[in-house]
Amino acid sequence: MTLTLSTDLSVTTGPTQVEEKLEDKRQSQLNSIKKGEPKIFGVSQIVIGLLIISYSIPLLSAENTMILNFGVPWWSGLMFVISGTAAIALEKNATVKTVSVCLAVSVVAVIISTIGLILYYVDIAFNPATICHNEAIYCDTQHYATSFSIRVKLSISMVNIVQTALSSAFTAILYNQRRNFMGYAAVSERHSA
Predict the structure, then answer these.
(1) CA dist., res. 24 & res. 121, Å (int)
(2) N or C end: fewer C-beta atoms under 10 angstroms in the chain?
(3) pLDDT digits (tens, 9 = 90+) for 93-112
(4) In the chain, helix, strand, coil percent, each to 5?
(5) Cβ(75)–Cβ(39) below 8 Å
(6) Cα–Cα distances in Å, from 17 out to 30, 72, 160, 183, 191?
């Protein structure tokens, strides 16, 4: 804090040069968040979440397996939509608290997408396609149904892999941004005391 004494003996206070530089640096950190990365990640997470939900609709006509019993496509897709919404909200209101909340939601999205991937592949391994006994004419409908179900699950798992990579990258970016914010907050608190 700087003190200025005028000729009429009034005292005014203002920020020091260090405080001004810290505020400028903090503002540049906020601007780096607002430059578009959260919105891009958020929109892509929402789209991928909706893709997973919509791709899983044909599984409702298939045999009930572990994926359907646990509702994996729906809760994983919904989590991606929530994570994307948090990322879009972060761009509109970038504070230390919103960065922390968005980071927490992104970490949960990574964990859920990893659990979802494991469940997809376990389900595929435990529910293989039935064998076609008469390939010369036609296979039974059970063979076609289980083959279709496996292909749908593989497609959803590929989209889920993309989501896992996207959420992991966004989580790393948010972690670095939060660490930078916290460093400047700690330094500015020391100088203001």
Answers:
(1) 49
(2) C
(3) 877 788 888 889 999 999 99
(4) 80, 5, 20
(5) no
(6) 20, 54, 49, 18, 11
